[in-house]
Amino acid sequence: MSWNQDLFKRTLDFAAKVHGAQQVPGSGAPYVVHLVKVATEVLRAADGSFDVDFAMQCALLHDCVEDAGVKVETLHLEFGSRVANGVHALTKDDAVSKPERMADSLRRIRAQPREVWLVKLADRITNLEPAPAHWAAEKRAAYRAEAQVIADALGEAHAGLAARIREKIAAYA
Ligand code: NI
Description:
Layout: H1 5-19, H2 31-45, H3 52-61, H4 72-79, H5 81-89, H6 98-110, H7 114-127, H8 137-154, H9 159-171
Nickel (II) ion binds next to loops.
């Protein structure tokens, strides 16, 4: 599987810069660790059926609007409209009420190319690492249930990632 390492590095540099000193909640690792984990899930799934460079760019940038305050217009200028639209769809809309937010988010992702679906699956696979110790059982159960909603809504995009998220959901206690 060939992929564009120079494009990956340019996107990674941008993501590392805009996330700055932000840390992965719970682990204290630099935030870029989360982004690279999501990108490697996508890379591992690469089978020639999707544009792995586009998918990895969306993986590296998927939280930069929501968590680092980057403007979608900036992504248009830096990386083009396909990436900007994908990342925009991967950004939760605070204007939508909290109970509706996930459904709204999944609707907007499903309107995007399949690569964007893969990133959402890869993000949740990555986040189904053992829950932070301070999370109550109820919060873990809700997170697990939400992961199942994501798997059901987007799993058809890639059989390998669908299998992997199911495994992670089963193992998540
Ligand atoms: Ni994420």
